Amino acid sequence: MVLATVLALSAAMLHTAWNLLLKTAPEADRDLTSWGLFLVGGALALPVATALGGPGLVAAPWLTLSTLIHLAYINALVAAYRQGDFSLAYPLARGGGAMVAAVGGALFLGDTLPVLAWVAIAVVVAALASLIGPGVSLTTVRNALVTAVAIGSYTLVDAHGARVSASALAYGLSTTTTAALGLSVMFLLRGRGPALRTAFPLQWWRWTIAGACSAAAYAAVLVAVRYADVGYVAMLRESSVVLGAFIGWRVLQEPMGGRRLASSGVVLVAMVALIAVTI
Known about the structure:
Order of helices and strands: HHHHHHHHHHH
Number of domains: 1
Structural class: mainly alpha
Strand content: under 5%
Mean pLDDT: 89
Largest sheet: none
Radius of gyration: 18 Å
Low-confidence stretches: none
C-alpha cells in the first residue's frame, strides 16, 4: 500500500509537471511542445508495449478512436493555456475530465452510481464553476471544458479498449504511441514540420522532460494499481488539481490563486467521496 501511495502521488506530480512545461513554453512553440512531448512519450512507451506482445488487433478500433479524441484534446488544451491561467485551466480540465468519465461510465459502460455519488458529482460541478471569477475569458473556459470532455471521453474509450485487448498494460502504453502518430500526421499536414526542426535546438529539453514525465506518470499508475485498488489510486491522482492550482497561485503568481486553490480542494474532496461510495 505504501508503494502504491508513493506511485499514485508521483503520477499526480508528474502529470502536473508536464502540463506546467506545456503552459510555460513560448506561445509560438506551445503547439510544437505538445507534439514533441508526445513524440518522446510515444518513443518510450513503444518498446515496452511491443515487449508485452501488443494490445492485439481487437483493440485497434478503440486505439484509433482514442487517437482521434487525443487530437481534439491537445488542440483544446493548447488553446486553454494560450490565454488562460494555469490555476484555472488545469483544475477545470482535470477535475472536469474525471467527472465526465464518472458520468460516462454510468451512461455507457454500465457502471452503477449510488445516490451519494450523484451528490458528490453535483458538488464537483459547483466547485468547478467557482473556479471561474470576474474577468475570466469565456474562450478559456470553453477550451478548458472541451479539454475536460476529451479527457473523460478518451478515458471511457481506453477503459473499454483495455478490457477487450490482449494486454491492458500494452493497450495503455500503446495509446501514447498512437496519439504521437496521430499528432504527427496532424502537424505535418499543417506544415509544422520545419517549425519543429527549427524549435528543436532550443526546446528539446522541455519536450524530453515533459514527454518523460507523461510516460512515467502513466507507467506509475499502471504499476500502482497492481498493489492497491483502482479507486484508491484514482483518488490520490486527483490531488493534481490542488497541486495545479497551488503552482498557478504561488509559482506563476496568477490572480485569484487562493480562491482557486480552495475550489480545487473542494473538487478533490468531492472526487474522493465519489470514489469512496462507488468502490
